[in-house]
Amino acid sequence: MRAFIVPRYGKNEKLQLAEIAAPGVKEDDVLIQIHSAGLNLLDSKLRNGEFKMILPYKTPFTLGHDVAGVVIQTGSKVSKFNVGDKVYARAADYRIGTFAEFISVNEDDVAIKPENLSMDEAASIPLVGLTAWQALVEKANLKKGQKVFIQAGSGGVGTFAIQLAKYLGATVATTTSSANIDLVKKLGADIVIDYKKEDFETRLKDYDVVLNSQDTKTLEKSLRILKPGGKLISISGPPDPEFAQAIGANWFLKIALRVLSASIRRKAKRLGVNFSFLFMRAQGEQLSQITKLVESGEIKPVMDKVFPWEQINEALAYVETGRAKGKVVVTMR
């Protein structure tokens, strides 16, 4: 089959179109013919080698985490899906490869595609949707009446997280540029801060939850706007000891991650707030819950551009600019 592979790590490396073997199908796998694939900054970071310490993929490997397509084969023990089902998924770590014609995914990581979405729209959701769900529902346990600060509201995670937080009944503050203020307001943001003109720390106080996606300086400022007992969930690092334990890291990596996060954990403790790192995981049942919210109209995908599959390098370069409003997708059809 045709696939775009990472031949070697590096910021200047281009994905290369190659002919590789089709994936095997284990007894609990579904084989998906890919129609569309979402792009994420994670794809760029993996290609650059930024995550080699925690996700040591051996080159060459096929990139891509988000998929929407049709099941064309099922393993002998698959019970949730049938050939012909239209599905979407975030492929699990070490089984990624959605920038290809086919991918084999464990059935527990897959969900039926929302009926009211196209394949392109569906492919834009899994990684950002699951990130927002695992941060706000699973980790933060966000409740009606609470206040949440979601950074970078016009980005892929931000556009989804704002809508999810509003569905949960929270008051939402976010940052964006002046060009995207109307967009985030339409999504449900109650307080919008133009990060180029205003410091969010001067306006926000006593927040219950922060979803951090920015740099260390922003992370430290975000700790200070939380109320005592408030929770900061960071998707941009630094990884913490709990994460090291969850991935079964070796002793050296556990020590390294403990050291990397020591300063932030100390600052959070002094302020009486909670810090945790989230590296989202594939989860089909949570994606099915998201499907219900999408089909009911509570959450709508926000897409910036759809590129032809052959222009995947151009699409990834556009994601890297950080200017995308919502998600970028490539389509095979």
UniProtKB/TrEMBL annotation:
Looking at the record, the residues that make up the Enoyl reductase (ER) domain are 10-330
CDD domains given for it?
A: MDR_like_2
Report the domain of life of the source organism: Bacteria
Pfam families linked: ADH_N, ADH_zinc_N_2
Q: Which SMART domains match?
A: PKS_ER (SM00829)
Signal sequence interval, chain numbering = none
PANTHER family per the UniProt record, alphabetical: ALCOHOL DEHYDROGENASE RELATED (PTHR11695), RETICULON-4-INTERACTING PROTEIN 1, MITOCHONDRIAL (PTHR11695:SF294)
Its name, as the record gives it, is NADP-dependent oxidoreductase
